[in-house]
């Protein structure tokens, strides 16, 4: 029943899911950094930065991810010549463009999760820190963000799980991850249900432990008030 | 008080009209479901110019559509009794086994794996994997592709052929649809688009692309397009085969090929014989 799996070696089933994992990890790191910066902008005292952060989040999170990813390839790469340092290697270029698109999109959700965490930190703490003579970035870095992060591990886990599943959109620009291999297999084997089940199971294997671990972590690290 | 009366009356009217329409809808459904003699459902693709395309106005055009219309006529259905159903590549086997459609004409290549799930009438067209190039391109044969940039559709057989056999050193970009590839070819981001020559000819024949592209004529593979019917439905299968033979013998087949692929200078194969699959 599963013997057709051995016909696929470029990418193999595990190789394709490995690309999915890589896409997820790189995009998660990128969107955590960019999302934190966006959140800092949205709570900053400078109106221009607040405006930029608000505009970015509201625009980007309302554009379908497929449109963003297809634009990175058809628009950025083909028309504007942004090749991400790999003009002659479509595989690498596609991967990097997909990470770029996923980071741009996911960061908006990371930012909003983080901003809700910042709102859980009592205003008195920031005021006390200001009174001690800390400036805005010190208050944020030393007092507010560490507490905010601990309270939003749960919501961030949701964002991470959504990101894992969203990596399948990278197949539209030819990144050889799980969804692309699934399409290839269905085209050749004419077994929609069985192949669909295999890949669905693969994603459950990836996301279920993530959710359980981060759920446990969020209970452990939550700031008890 | 008056207001409440009005609301009550309005609600009653609304509920009545809703139930009435619901009944009407139900009757209509069961009629067409159980009767089945007044309409025929045929699976095609909606997004392949020259083969199966849904026009902006809601009409359908293409070679697959012409063949299906001819076959339906032989089965006893006029053109206005045909209900077109979109069957995407991944869904074709299920649509047949569920009985959603009577038969499928949708660039459906006959392969051993698929024959285990469905039966094929035909083949009705022999296509080959080929390259679509810019009109001034200097690519002559498959090996010229090494080092060039090539585009095909994600997961398609053509894309797999390129990766494994034809030009392993070519840069292959896979997009979701052929239209995106054609856009890349037009802008110069890729050097060639590859899939079945019939599909490429269909794109190149579109008004907005006329004269810009040419087919390389390489015959990189053989794709025998068949008409898919439900496994075991040999009555329909035989009728369709008879219809296809008639279509070739009375010249309608040639005319359909000329009409749909003509402007791209497509060198079509002669009509294939029923049951003869070119490997």
Provide key terms for this protein.
heterodimer, A: 225 residues, mainly alpha, MetI-like fold, 76% helix, B: 279 residues, alpha/beta, D-Maltodextrin-Binding Protein, domain 2, five-stranded mixed sheet, 9 helices, 13 strands, 22% strand, MetI-like_sf (chain A), amino-acid transport (chain A)
Could you describe the 3D structure shown?
- Chain A: It comes from Streptomyces chromofuscus.
- Chain A: Belongs to the binding-protein-dependent transport system permease family. HisMQ subfamily.
- Chain A: Pfam families: BPD_transp_1 (PF00528).
- The complex is a heterodimer of chains A (225) and B (279).
- Chain A has helices at 13-43, 47-60, 65-79, 90-120, 123-131, 136-151, 153-166, 178-189, 192-221.
- Chain A is mainly α.
- Chain A has one domain (12-221): Orthogonal Bundle (MetI-like fold).
- The model of chain A has no long low-confidence stretch (mean pLDDT 93).
- By secondary structure, chain B is of the alpha/beta class.
- The relative contact order of chain B is 0.16.
- Chain B has 9 helices and 13 strands.
- In chain B, strands 5-1-6-13-7 form a 5-stranded mixed sheet.
- The N and C termini of chain B lie far apart (81 Å).
- Chain B has 2 domains: 40-126 and 224-264, 3-Layer(aba) Sandwich (D-Maltodextrin-Binding Protein, domain 2), CATH 3.40.190; 129-215, Periplasmic binding protein-like II (D-Maltodextrin-Binding Protein, domain 2), CATH 3.40.190.10.
- The interface between A and B is medium-sized, with 28 and 30 residues.
Helix content of chain A: over 70%
Largest sheet of chain A: none
Q: Fill in the CATH topology of the largest domain in chain B.
A: D-Maltodextrin-Binding Protein, domain 2
The tally of beta strands of chain B, per DSSP, is 13
Q: Largest sheet of chain B, if any?
A: 5 strands, mixed
Structural class of chain A: mainly alpha
Structural class of chain B: alpha/beta
Tell me the number of helical segments of chain B per DSSP (H or I, 4 or more residues long): 9
Whole-number total of structural domains of chain B:
2
Q: What pair of chains forms the biggest interface? A: A-B, 28 and 30 residues
Ends distance of chain B: 81 Å
Shape summary of chain A: globular
CATH topology of chain A: MetI-like fold
Assembly state (oligomeric):
heterodimer
Cα radius of gyration of chain B in angstroms: 23 Å
GO cellular component, one term (chain A): ATP-binding cassette (ABC) transporter complex
Family (chain A): Belongs to the binding-protein-dependent transport system permease family. HisMQ subfamily.
GO molecular function (chain A): transmembrane transporter activity
Transmembrane segments (chain A): 15-41, 62-82, 94-114, 192-217
């Amino acid at each position: 029943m599963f013997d057709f799996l051995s016909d696929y070696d470029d990418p193999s089933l595990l190789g394709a899911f490995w690309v999915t994992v890589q896409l997820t990890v790189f995009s998660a790191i990128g969107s955590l950094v960019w999302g934190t910066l966006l959140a800092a902008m949205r709570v900053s005292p400078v109106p221009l930065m607040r405006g930029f952060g608000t505009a970015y989040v509201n625009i980007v999170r309302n554009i379908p991810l497929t449109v963003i990813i297809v634009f990175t390839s058809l628009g950025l790469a083909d028309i504007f010549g942004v090749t991400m340092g790999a003009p002659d290697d479509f595989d690498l270029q596609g991967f990097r463009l997909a990470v770029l698109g996923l980071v741009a999109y996911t960061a908006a959700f990371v930012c909003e999760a983080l901003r809700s965490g910042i709102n859980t930190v009592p205003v008195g703490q920031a005021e006390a820190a200001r009174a001690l003579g800390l400036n805005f970035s010190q208050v944020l870095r030393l007092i507010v963000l560490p507490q905010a992060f601990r309270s939003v591990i749960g919501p961030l886990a949701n964002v991470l799980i959504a990101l894992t599943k969203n990596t399948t959109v990278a197949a539209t620009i030819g990144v050889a991850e799980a969804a692309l291999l699934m399409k290839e297999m269905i085209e050749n084997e004419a077994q929609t249900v069985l192949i669909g089940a295999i890949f669905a199971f693969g994603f459950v294997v990836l996301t279920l432990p993530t959710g359980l671990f981060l759920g446990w972590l969020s209970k452990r690290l939550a700031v008890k008030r | 008080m008056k207001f409440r009366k009005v609301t009550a009356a309005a609600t009653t009217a609304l509920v009545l009209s809703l139930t009435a329409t619901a009944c009407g809808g139900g009757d209509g459904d069961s009629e067409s479901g159980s009767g089945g003699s007044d309409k025929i459902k045929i699976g095609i693709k909606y997004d392949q110019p020259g083969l199966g395309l849904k026009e902006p106005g809601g009409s359908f055009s293409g070679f697959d559509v012409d063949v299906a219309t001819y076959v339906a006529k032989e089965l006893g259905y006029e053109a206005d009794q045909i209900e077109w159903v979109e069957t995407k590549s991944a869904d074709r086997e299920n649509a047949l086994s569920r009985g959603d459609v009577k038969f499928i004409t949708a660039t459906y290549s006959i392969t051993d794996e698929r024959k285990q799930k469905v039966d094929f009438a035909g083949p009705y067209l022999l296509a080959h994997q080929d390259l679509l190039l810019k009109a001034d391109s200097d690519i002559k044969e498959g090996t010229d592709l090494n080092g060039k940039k090539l585009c095909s559709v994600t997961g398609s057989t053509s894309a797999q052929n390129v990766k494994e056999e034809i030009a392993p050193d070519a840069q292959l970009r896979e997009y979701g649809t052929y239209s995106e590839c054609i856009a890349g070819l037009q802008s110069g981001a890729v050097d060639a688009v590859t899939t079945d020559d019939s599909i490429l000819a269909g794109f190149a024949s579109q008004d907005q692309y006329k004269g810009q592209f040419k087919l390389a004529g390489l015959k990189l593979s053989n794709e025998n397009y068949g008409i898919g019917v439900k496994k075991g439905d040999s009555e329909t299968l035989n009728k369709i085969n008879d219809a296809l033979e008639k279509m070739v013998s009375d010249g309608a087949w040639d005319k359909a090929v000329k009409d749909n692929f003509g402007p791209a200078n497509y060198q079509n194969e002669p009509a294939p014989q029923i049951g003869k699959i070119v490997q």
